[in-house]
Design goal:
24% strand, Rossmann fold, alpha/beta, 12 strands, three-stranded antiparallel sheet
């Protein structure tokens, strides 16, 4: 089976994000970058399919030179090869342009199933995988917490409020991974060493015959307003403190 996993490099969830003074984006200085957590579930599922059906896992990413770290992480987990589209002319690409580049890269290789994270934790759009599926004319199964396959079809569970959808589609298909689908493995030391020798094909968008402009752009980024300082209610009598708390919640916070 030919399995593809798309990954994106994003700021670490513990990183302190600062907006540039001109509002044009985030200040990237000092930020630690990691593989998007939802993409980790996609990579793990791809590796499980490889273990079950055999074949190869190809990691595809679109991003600057530093994104190679996320490819190497996936290769250290057990993936076989990678494709890295590194093109500064696409910096700040929106979901449509990103999906266009990913689709062009994936069209150059055989594929039976494509795994993506259900969304990226930086822009939080959740659109790339859906657009990718449309561009490849494939069925899409999104926000998946369980996936079973016989090699020809895939049956998934998609949670909805108060229930679950069970959806089945013929392969090839695009599957987007949600937390709960699996538990991503850690890269072993031998895996890390082997990853250094695994092939990664670095391309520009022009190498793929892609010339697409973003349909949208970020006009300005504004940090959230600072939270007002909290209040401490002092005193020795619990009843008096409770009464004062209720008064503040009613008159100042206006939540009761």
């Amino acid at each position: 089976m030919n399995i593809v996993a798309c990954v994106k490099q994003v700021p670490d969830t513990e990183a302190q994000i600062k907006v540039k003074p001109d509002g044009s984006g985030i200040d990237e200085s000092g930020i630690k970058w990691v593989m998007n957590p939802y993409d980790e579930f996609g990579v793990e599922e791809a590796l499980k399919y490889k273990e079950k059906f055999g074949g190869d896992v190809t990691i595809v990413t679109f991003g600057p030179a530093r994104a190679m770290e996320s490819i190497r992480t996936a290769l250290a987990m057990g993936a076989d090869k990678g494709i890295h589209i590194d093109d500064p002319s696409y910096d700040g690409a929106d979901a449509y342009a990103t999906a266009s580049v990913l689709a062009a890269a994936i069209k150059t290789i055989p594929y039976d199933v494509i795994f993506c994270g259900q969304r990226a934790i930086d822009d939080d759009s959740g659109q790339v995988a859906a657009i990718l599926a449309d561009m490849l004319d494939l069925p899409q199964l999104t926000v998946v917490t369980k996936a079973e396959s016989d090699g020809k079809t895939v049956k998934v569970v998609r949670p909805v409020e108060g229930a679950n959808f069970v959806i089945e589609a013929a392969l090839p298909a695009v599957v987007t991974a949600q937390k709960g689908l699996n538990e991503p493995r850690y890269a072993s030391l031998p895996g890390i060493m082997k990853a250094k020798k695994k092939p990664v094909d670095v391309k520009k968008a022009a190498d793929l015959g892609v010339s697409v402009e973003s349909k949208s752009k970020v006009a300005k980024m504004v940090p959230p307003p600072a939270r007002p300082p909290g209040k401490i209610i002092s005193g020795d009598e619990p009843a008096a403190k409770a009464a004062e708390l209720a008064k503040l919640l009613r008159e100042e916070a206006k939540v009761i």
